[in-house]
Amino acid sequence: MSKAGRASGEPILRVEALAKSFGGLRAVNDLSFEVKPGTITSLIGGNGAGKTTAFNLITGYLAPDAGAIHFRGRRVDGLAPHQVARAGIARGFQELRLFNRLSARDNIETAVPHQQGEGLLRALLGGPKLKAERAATAARASALLDELTLAGQAEALAERLSYGQQKLVALGRLIAAHGELLLLDEPTSGLSPAMAEGFGARARALAQAGKTILLIEHNVEIVMRLSDWIVVMHQGGKIAEGPPSTVRADTAVMHAYLGLS
Amino acid sequence: MEYFIYLGTLISIYATLAISLNLLIGFTGLISIAQAAIYGVGAYVAALLALNATNDLVLSFLLAAAVGVAVSLVIALPSLRLRNEYFLIAALGFQSIIFSLFMNLEVTGGASGLYGIPHPALFGPTLRTSGEKFVLALSLAAICYLLARRITNAPFGRLLRAVREDDTAVASLGKSVFRIKLTIFVVSAVFAAAAGTIYVYSLSAIDPVAFGLDESVFIMTLVIIGGTGSLNGSVLAAALLILLPESFKFLAIPEAIAPQLRQVFYGLLLVGFTRFRRQGLIGEYRDVLQ
């Protein structure tokens, strides 16, 4: 990573004057920010600030009323969610959205992109190519499950896992999807302090491996420790941004939205 | 003997239909109540072809499947993007429209249907006996079962289950949910239309009542009782739900109330299974219908 990269690199994601209203409510209002490659950027703000709506706009689940979203120089607003994902933006959900009655392994294998066996014809024809692909996908999933300390739960249905383990499966699915930009929505909520620390270390390792992370997180300490850049939202708009030291020094922001002195 | 061959043929046809619907309900979470309409389209196409042009079975299959798919796309294209409950309503509307077309069009013979359908010919020879037609129905059921097993065991099958669990998450992984649903809808329509073809040639006559809403509900009953997501369950349920009511014939039940009693029996089974055994006879999942 990281801070040097932020200073010099072209942005991987550029959000320009984004707006979205629901009836009379302006959920996102003239929001602009950039995310540099290989960095961890956090979107913070109180409940209802528009963070998750911003995620939904970036990932195609909502269409913006105005503004533009560029990913690696390509405009992605207006694309369907699966097209945004194929462009290289992988998204995790606050409510996890695991495939509950699939095993942990199947959850992760499903995320592996470009599988020929996911087409009907290839599924029907079978053959050695498909066998080899399935073996490669299984090996990739096993490695990830190992890395996430889930090897012992590989065949367990996702719904039977503890919440912490489910969070790990969700992270594994995100990593397996092979996106360049990972959007994480409250990844440490509901986790013990030790597990939250573990997540922080994993996020840092991912950034060091070249992934870019855009994070929504309420755990202020983790945000401050992990982020290279912080965007503060309030009532749908951006009220401040900068490195953690700058945001932390902004007493108005800290008082109003983070409850810190 | 003839009677048992007839039962075997019926079981094979309903096993095919249950497999076709299980691909939608059990594996993909698409609760469709229009399977009898697509089954009927296949049947009428095969009947009209046999009456007006050729009794060649391969041609009948191909044309019935093509028209079955084309008609099913009429419902699939506009409604597969809908949420489940809306999709169910759209499918119900589709079922009603197709049924009233069967009932009222001149070409389908209206309420009296079509009859005098010639025996089918397979690669030259004509299949005249009920035994030959049973083998035909059984072969189709076996082929559909094997194809469905191959599909559901492949990564494509895993993707179907993932769509059933959470299609929003599937889209976030770069997979087109619409393409996946459309593909399995087409496969299901081919199976159902093929079952319709076999049905026509087995009975030599058809009438629209065989393809009404009751029939769609019956096929869904087979899937639920057999077990959503279980192909073996679909086959088992087809056998049980054809054979058990037939056993009423051997009880001292007046013939006038036997059909109504059969409906009561199906209804009780459906209520009983959804209340006490949601995974069906051998289904793997407890609450797909939730």
Task: Provide a descriptive summary of the structure in words.
The complex is a heterodimer of chains A (261) and B (290). Chain A is an alpha/beta fold and 261 residues long. Chain A has a single domain, classed as Rossmann fold. In chain A, 41% of the residues lie in helices and 23% in strands. Chain A has 11 helices and 10 strands. Chain A has helices at residues 3-8, 51-58, 81-87, 104-111, 120-125, 128-147, 163-176, 193-208, 220-226, 244-249, 251-258; strands at residues 13-22, 25-35, 40-44, 66-71, 74-75, 89-91, 181-185, 212-216, 229-234, 237-242. In chain A, the strands form 2 sheets. Chain A has a 6-stranded mixed sheet with strand order 6-7-8-3-9-10, with helices on both faces. Chain A has a 4-stranded antiparallel sheet with strand order 2-1-4-5, with helices on one face. The longest helix of chain A is centred in the middle third of the chain and has 20 residues, at 128-147. Chain A is globular, with a radius of gyration of 19 Å. Chain B has 290 residues and is mainly α. Chain B has one domain. Chain B contains 11 helices and 2 strands, in the order ααααβααααβααα. Chain B has a two-stranded antiparallel ribbon with strand order 1-2. Chain B starts with a helix and ends in a 14-residue tail after the last helix.
At the first level of CATH, the class of chain A is Alpha Beta
Largest interface: A-B, 36 and 26 residues
CATH-assigned homologous superfamily of chain A: P-loop containing nucleotide triphosphate hydrolases
Overall pLDDT confidence of chain A? 92
Largest sheet of chain A: 6 strands, mixed
Assembly state of the chains shown:
heterodimer
Low-confidence stretches of chain A: 1-7
In one word, what is the shape of chain B? globular
Question: Order of strands side by side in the largest beta sheet of chain A?
Answer: 6-7-8-3-9-10
**How many structural domains in the coordinates of chain A?**
1
